[in-house]
Amino acid sequence: EVVLDVRHVGKRYRSARGEVVALSDVSFRTHRREFVCVIGPSGCGKSTLIRILAGLESHTSGEVLLDGKPVRGPGADRGMVFQGYTLFPWLTVKKNVMFGLKMNGSSAGEAEREALQWLDLVGLTPFADVYPHQLSGGMKQRVAIARSLANRPRILLMDEPFGALDAQTRAKMQAHLIDIWRNIDVTILFITHDLDEAIMLADRILVLKANPGEVQELIEVPVPRP
Ligand code: ADP
Ligand code: ADP
């Protein structure tokens, strides 16, 4: 079952110095419950790609389909976790997770019940009523994951989510993310510049190869899971 279908997507930025081609003709698909990593050198367009998929930016050619329907703007069908913690500092951990649920029409009671279930899944039940600044970096990203999964997105888009963490925390978070992913029905698209991280996490690695001035190559590498 195809979840995301990226067809010949291209992106050009216009700047004072002329045009920048950030993506040229990128195509791939992801399937239900698949964990896909995208790697590639700095500047090859990884962040541009994920911002387009998130609906935060428009593409200038090609099309992006989610469950067969064109993606336009952000939506609850796509969860996002980026490197910088995007938690609301003035809300408790629980209220951070409840925020999106209430936006999507849950009552306060429903949102609270669901938020507590998601916090349990990421192992943060004892921290439901504290504020983000009281948490370690890894714990903040666990809240961000709980919050983005709470709306039951079809796909979770992650842009170097563990890039700011120390090596030990990062390894713990990788194992933790795999545990979460195994327990729920979600496809993950995960961007990293760390090949070890991609091999640890992915079912399939997409290598985005920049060929300046030429069409970009996308090389697919399957990674058998033990
Ligand atoms: P990566 O995430 O792989 O490092 P990016 O998607 O950030 O790559 O960038 C791809 C290319 O697009 C780079 O050449 C970058 O300089 C350019 N770029 C990214 N964002 C903008 C922007 N807002 N305006 C102009 N050029 C941009
Ligand atoms: P990080 O995710 O940044 O590695 P840790 O998970 O190591 O952070 O947690 C930082 C601190 O919080 C540690 O002292 C740890 O024992 C404590 N801690 C983390 N999760 C829980 C939890 N679910 N219950 C109680 N204490 C926890």
From TrEMBL:
A GO MF term: ATP binding
Keyword Transcription regulation attached: no
Domain ABC transporter, residue spans: 4-226
Keyword Isomerase in annotation: no
Assigned keywords, A-Z: ATP-binding, Cell inner membrane, Cell membrane, Membrane, Nucleotide-binding, Transport
Family: Belongs to the ABC transporter superfamily.
Record-given protein name: ABC transporter
Species classification: Bacteria, Pseudomonadati, Pseudomonadota, Betaproteobacteria, Burkholderiales
